Structures are given as structure tokens and as C-alpha cells.
Amino acid sequence: MKILLIFTLFLIPGGGESERVTGYSGGGVLIKCRYETRYTSNPKYLCTHALLCMTKPIWTDAKNEWINSGRFSLFDDTRAAQFWVLIRELTVEDSGKYNCAVWKSGIDVFTPVELKVEEALNTDFL
After folding, report:
1. Gap between the Cα atoms of 110 and 59, Å rounded
2. In the 3-class helix/strand/coil scheme, how is 26-89 assigned residue by residue?
3. Cα-based torsion angle of the residue sequence 112, 60, 63, 96 in order, rounded to the nearest 10 degrees
4. What pTM, to 2 d.p., does this model score?
5. What is the rounded distance in angstroms from the CA atom of residue 39 to the CA atom of residue 36?
6. Mean pLDDT computed over every residue of the chain
7. How far are the Cα atoms of 42, 58, 74, 89 from residue 109, in angstroms, in the given order?
8. More confident residue, 90 or 18
9. What is the rounded CA–CA span in Å between residue 88 and residue 27?
């Protein structure tokens, strides 16, 4: 099952370096978030509203394992100094500004990400 999940992740749009990510309603996106190696032991999270970081749909201090929270999953790959956020069951309302974030004493480290979700084409009539 894990092999299938990992293979599937590489097929999801948005799996490259993530500043702007596009997905389709009903589908999923994989957001790649890099960080400096000195932060490998710090908690990681994704938050909404780029300036205020109002909502944290997923947050974890776990390392090298997938953590799930509703439609969101996060994997912190400490060897590569990057973490991945998977968002499933996208809706157009998910479009907007997010931050990949690393918690640290003082001000957290943020990397902005813009997510655009487009309506999926309906091919039922074909």
C-alpha cells in the first residue's frame, strides 16, 4: 500500500518545486517545501492566508513518516531537508495563498505558495 501511495504522489500535478501549484477539483496536489538543514528537528506545517497564517490545516513534529489530518497529509523528509504536503479532494474554494512553514523560536520561517484549483472537465458525455 505504501509503495502505491508513494508512486501515486509522483503522478499528482504540482509535484515539483512549489511556488505556484495548480490542481483540479476533485483531485489532489503535492506541495514540495524546502528548508535549511538546521531546521530538521523543528515542527513543520502548512498555513493559509499568506500574511497572517490564520489557519494551520496540518502541523507536525513527526519525522520521516506521513501524518494525516482530514484532506491534508505531511511528510517531513529530514535527509533531504524538505517536506511534502498532499491536499486531496480539492475544491475551487481551496485556491489561494498558503505558506509552507517551519516553527522556530521567534519568527517562524515561511515559504509562500499559491494554489490554483481549476474545475475539472466533465467527460461523462463522451
Report:
1. 14
2. CCCEEEEEECCHHHCCCCEEEEECCCCCCCCCEEECCCCCEEEECCEEEEEECCCCEEEEEECC
3. -20
4. 0.80
5. 6
6. 85
7. 10, 16, 17, 28
8. 90
9. 6
